Amino acid sequence: MDLEATVHMVLPLETGQSARGEWKRQDVIFALPGEFDRKLCVEFWNDRAADAAALRPGDRVALSINVESREYNGRWYTRVRAWRMNRLEAQTGAPAGAYPPPYPPANAAPAGQQAYQQPQYQAPQQPQQAQPTSAAEVDDLPF
């Protein structure tokens, strides 16, 4: 199965020793494109773990993965293992996910234009209440 995703988080590298020798596993959380925010944890083993450890949040990659489920004591466990990963180049122009700043820097004004200045804060004035003039206006209860 092939998919394109954006790196969300790189988890710590796990290592261990088995009967067949030393092993390394790198788990990476990817954000999948689509209408809803979906995350997918993908395992990279041994030689591929070093490549995955070099990923940074925001990197876009193309993945080839295998999805496998197995049963243990009546429960099912699913693993997603990557067997190929290619980094995708950022689109021309702005880097992926970057937006231009909404306002120019405070000390720089574009040529031929005035610098923007923030208006001074003024405390709102309290409206003045009219003083009651008769006893009927003081007591507003109907009984």
Tell me what the structure shows.
It is a single chain. With 143 residues, the chain is mainly β. It has a domain at 2-87: OB fold (Dihydrolipoamide Acetyltransferase, E2P). The chain has 2 helices and 6 strands. It has helices at residues 47-53, 135-138, and strands at residues 2-10, 14-18, 21-32, 38-45, 60-72, 75-87. Strands 1, 2, 3, 4, 5 and 6 form a 6-stranded antiparallel beta sheet that branches. Mean pLDDT is 80; it is low at 92-97.
* Helix content class: under 10%
Mean pLDDT: 80
The value of Rg in angstroms is 31 Å
Determine the structural class based on helices, strands and strand pairing: mainly beta
CATH superfamily membership of one domain: Nucleic acid-binding proteins
Strand segment count = 6
From the spread of the alpha carbons, the general shape counts as elongated
The largest sheet, given as strand count, sense and whether it forms a barrel, is: 6 strands, antiparallel
SSE run:
EEEEHEEH
CATH architecture annotation name of one domain: Beta Barrel
Can you tell me the CATH topology of one domain?
OB fold (Dihydrolipoamide Acetyltransferase, E2P)
Task: Assess the beta-strand content as a share of residues.
Answer: 35-45%
pLDDT < 50 stretches: 92-97
CATH class of one domain: Mainly Beta
Count of helical regions: 2
Distance between the termini: 80 Å
Pfam family, one: DUF3127
Organism: Rikenella microfusus
InterPro entries: DUF3127, NA-bd_OB-fold
Protein name: Domain of uncharacterized function (DUF3127)
